[in-house]
Amino acid sequence: DMEIEEGEPVQLTQHALFDLIQRGSYRAMIDALDNPIAHPPEVIAQLMSGRSELGKSPLDTAVFMCRQEIVKDLVLNRGADVNATNAEGYTAMHLAAAWRNAEALKIIYAQGGDIQRCSRFGERPIEVAQRYGNSECVDFLQWAEARDAFAAAIRQMRETLADTEKLQGRLNKDERKQADLACTEREQWLQGRRTPQRRIS
Question: What domain of life does the native source organism fall in (predicted)?
Fold first, then answer.
């Protein structure tokens, strides 16, 4: 097995990357991956899509081990596919829901994680969270579902406003302008709320 010390620049094998993630060696991992000579984009892409003997991707492993800093780095900086599935059709979101990792759910969702993706057994992340009694994950996924439904309603309104045939004689110019402004305001509101806001009691 390849021993990797913190701060030691190294060209990572797939096994070495999994080793760093499992150990939570965030600094050693980013030092290695940030080296563009050892790790050009195509090598990074290969590492991100590689699977362990247990069928887990680097992102899956970071989620499973609750390595939030690593989850964030893989998703934001390394192009890890947030909707990649394993042989059973489970994504990193399913794993986060199973392992009570609400923080990872939030990170992945904010980067386009699909909360409606079903495994081969027909389970979405929310059903996995419910099966394991992970209430914080269930709460977040219910919030995400409501947010997505609101975003879909705004998109539908935009499509209606753009369809002059549908709107003919229904709204005058000022009313269309007001409706368009309302959509913009709600889109901006949604942009600022990619995770639930804490309630102040």
Answer: Eukaryota
Judge if 143 and 96 occupy the same domain: no
Q: Do residue 71 and residue 146 come from a single domain?
A: no
Please indicate, yes or no, if residue 153 is contained in any of the structural domains.
yes
> What is the model's pLDDT at position 16?
95
Entry pTM: 0.79
185 confidence band (pLDDT: 50, 70, 90):
confident
